[in-house]
Design a protein that fits this description.
Layout (H helix, E strand, L loop, with lengths): L8 H23 L4 E7 L3 H16 L3 E7 L5 H13 L5 E4 L9 H7 L11 H9 L7 H14 L6 E5 L6 H10 L3 E5 L6 H6 L3 E4 L17 E4 L3 E4 L6 E4 L4 H7 L2 E2 L7 H19 L9
Parallel strand pairs: 1-2, 1-3, 4-5, 4-6, 6-7, 7-10
Antiparallel strand pairs: 8-9
Bound molecules: guanine.
Length: 297
């Protein structure tokens, strides 16, 4: 996969984590403390437990403090909100992330609403969604911001580019569209009701696929030379009996021959998400301390 067409998110994320570690050292020198990230996991979902562990490890590797809170699956809404309020009030905590999805019976919107927007390193709070929409200083959702970083690294100036985002989730599609608008791209937000999706995608210089449907975007839907960011992480049966493998929302082998550049799955957008979470935590910590935003992040 060492083709120039491949956008190596793993390498980009490693370099970003290096710059964050430098920023964390400077923050410590100025404030005498480490930035702190609190991660809350409710219940026993194995995939979520893996994410939470890797977030804690990534924190420590860049010199941040990690606070992990594990609550049982039968935790009440009130107990979870009390924990969020404690974390809001704890001066050592700069970032709060409540791992989603929450178990049945808990209302993720109500929980997110309780997070202090200035500690909302996921960028999911309505105040941050609003700030992003008006171009104010938002904490921005990690996956779209990581995707934008990869696009700018590959393309440079995005002004005037035709961008098609497929998927309108609050976590990826909508904030991705906002970020591309801010970069002066011409943005189309396509979704499950879009008529003739292949024709819409064929216009695009930039395609961001975030739908959660394995191999949905075909190679012959792409304009030759288009830059493709595949946000999908779908587990499907592999050719080997009893085994599974990860694929994106884009049929990679077909798309690679048409695209100008493309992110692989795994190793594309995925590694960027945690790196940007650390970046957001350092940004939140700096703002809370009245410091300038760290440069080069
Ligand atoms: N679950 C899967 N991805 C994410 C994420 O980026 N943030 C949170 N809070 N939960 C998730």
């Amino acid at each position: 996969m060492a083709s120039e067409k491949i956008i190596d998110g793993k390498a980009f994320a490693a370099a970003l984590r290096g710059r964050i570690a430098t920023g964390v050292a400077a923050f410590k020198a100025q404030t005498g403390r480490a930035p702190g990230l609190a991660v809350v996991l409710v219940g026993e979902d194995p995939a979520s437990a893996v994410y939470v562990r890797s977030k804690g490890k990534a924190c420590r590797e860049v010199g941040m403090e990690s606070f992990e809170h594990r609550l049982p699956a039968d935790t009440t809404q009130e107990t979870l909100i009390e924990l969020v309020e404690q974390l809001n009030d704890n001066p050592a905590v700069d970032g709060i992330l409540v791992q989603l999805p929450l178990p049945d019976g808990l209302d993720d919107k109500k929980v997110i609403d309780m997070i202090d927007p200035d500690k909302d390193v996921d960028g999911f709070h309505p105040v941050n969604a609003g700030r992003l929409a008006i171009g104010a200083n938002a904490l921005t959702p990690c996956t779209p911001l990581g995707s934008l970083m990869l696009l700018k690294d590959r393309i440079g100036d995005l002004s005037g580019k035709e961008a098609v985002v497929i998927g309108r989730s609050n976590i990826v599609g909508k904030p991705m569209a906002q970020l591309l608008i801010q970069e002066n791209a011409t943005v189309t937000l396509a979704h499950s009701r879009t008529v003739d999706l292949p024709a819409v995608i064929r216009r695009a210089d930039i395609v961001v696929a975030a739908v959660g449907r394995p191999n949905m975007v075909r190679g012959d839907w792409l304009k030759p030379g288009a830059v493709v960011i595949d946000v999908g992480i779908n587990r499907i049966a592999s050719d080997e009996p009893g085994k599974t493998r990860l694929v994106g929302d884009v049929a990679f082998d077909e798309a690679e021959s048409v695209a100008g550049a493309i992110t692989p799955v795994p190793g594309g957008v995925g590694p960027m998400t945690i790196a940007v979470l650390l970046r957001n935590t350092l940004v939140a910590a700096s703002r809370r301390e009245g410091l300038a935003d760290p440069e080069g992040l």
